[in-house]
Specification:
142 residues, alpha/beta, four-stranded parallel β-sheet, 4 helices
């Protein structure tokens, strides 16, 4: 019997909104797929594009960035900065041959624990349909 592919997702969550929503989901016993590994960042605007590229390079099948809704950022404009970076990253990832569905930005406020479940489960299902990401072959230099 073939083994079901379980995607690995690296999730960068804003400390003030999305991370609190994930915490709310946990304390409210809202179950979601266990495929996401959450990394807390102070703001979605602080997610360096290199973090995303490194996640994919180290075997992630998908990357999720979660931040405050526009206009609700603890740092006033951090989520707008994230939005601009994501637009550039989408183009770069496309040129690298990484499917668009593998990278996602979501606005999730601290009170939206149920939305965390919905977003993670939806991303897991889409990544399962895509299958594992094909890693480029690296040649080690001696």
């Amino acid at each position: 019997m073939p083994e079901v592919f379980e995607p690995k997702i690296v999730a960068f969550f804003c400390n003030w909104c999305t991370y609190l929503a994930a915490d709310l989901a946990g304390t409210s016993r809202i179950k979601h797929a266990p495929n996401a590994r959450v990394i807390r960042v102070m703001c979605s605007g602080r997610v360096d594009p290199q973090f995303v590229l490194d996640a994919f390079a180290k075997g992630a099948d998908g990357v999720l960035i979660g931040g405050c809704h526009p206009g609700d950022c603890h740092y006033q404009e951090g989520n707008y900065k994230a939005l601009r970076r994501v637009a550039l990253l989408r183009r770069l990832l496309k040129q690298m041959g990484i499917e668009e569905e593998r990278f996602r930005l979501e606005w999730i406020s601290a009170a939206e624990g149920e939305r965390v479940k919905t977003v993670i489960n939806d991303m897991v299902e889409k990544l399962r349909a895509l299958g594992p990401r094909v890693q480029p072959v690296r040649k080690e230099v001696a």
